[in-house]
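Feature request, filed as a ticket because there's no other form

It would be nice if the structure record came with a short human-readable summary line next to the tokens. Right now we just get the raw output. Example of a typical job, pasted below so the devs can see what we mean:
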Amino acid sequence: MNCSSEMFMEIFNNYFSDVVAYAEVRTGNDNRSESVRRELEQLGATVVRKFEDNVTHVVFKEGSKRTLNKATKKGVHLVSVLWVEK
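Raw output as currently delivered:
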């Protein structure tokens, strides 16, 4: 199968179209959540700023125990920032 670059980009940009993501990403005292949100949006994900009932994925690094417990309790996909990187 020969895929044109336009077709590839269309597929790539919609790769996360079924994802509703909440990001809580910190490195030490730095909050990196906003940059992760932007990248998720570029990949086609819906990004929310509050952990709502429709969240399917939580991108998590050094976040709050409350967020970790909520993601575990709700059974959503808990993923690292590596999942988002291009």
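Something like this underneath would help us a lot:
The longest helix spans residues 33-42.
The chain has a mean pLDDT of 89.
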